[in-house]
Amino acid sequence: MAFDEDYKEFLEWHRNRRSGERRRRLIAGMGHAEELFLRAVWWRTFRHFSNLHPQYEILDYREGYRYLDFAYIQPHFHVAIEIDGFGPHWRNISSWQFDDHCQRQNHLVIDGWYVIRFTYNQIREQPRLCQQTLQQLFGRWLANGSSSEELTVLERETVRMAARSVRPITPKELCRHLDIGPDYAQHLLRGLVEKQWLQPASGNVRIRSYDLHASRNDIRL
User: Fold this and answer.
1) Coil/strand/helix, residue 111
2) At a CB cut-off of 8 Å and minimum separation 6, what does 83 contact?
3) What is the mean pLDDT of residues 133-156?
4) Number of domains in the chain
5) Is the entire prediction scored with pTM above 0.70?
6) 54, part of any domain
7) Does the structure show a pLDDT above 90 at 127?
């Protein structure tokens, strides 16, 4: 699926499931910097938006609500992604606002979040550097929390198939390769996406094909 189609589906999915201020922000639409991040950095790294949440609402240390530009949510792995533009907001910020901004980030870290910040200029002029930053973070998390020894025989063979294929694999191809039924093939594929061994290659809600996860490109099975 092309970026524009998947991006539209991504926004509609979240707009239809959110309420209050968060829904209002999503209906208002993405800013240019946020959309460029999704197009030039996130999409080109992962080719899907699974587990990514725009305008993610959190209760801050003063018991008010703040909104992260994006949050990537997995069990035991939360990443806050903020896009910073060098505009009037930053040039005219007061000292107490700057203090509050820093303390907000401190509390995210204390609460167990990884915090990644990109500037608009980085996204526009150095998208590959931004992609590599995400790959390094995700690769380190996966290396620390998951190894191929944790996979079953059929899971390992599915990952091996994806690693050797020159194009995304489909559930139908996996059925033929492993001689299993379609329901079990879908079960295997969904489980490997959750474990971050595979990633959707087409479709956001209805996934039709799968690639090896971007952080596993150097895997040897």
Assistant:
1) coil
2) 31, 33, 34, 37, 69, 70, 117, 118, 119, 120, 123
3) 74
4) 2
5) no
6) yes
7) yes
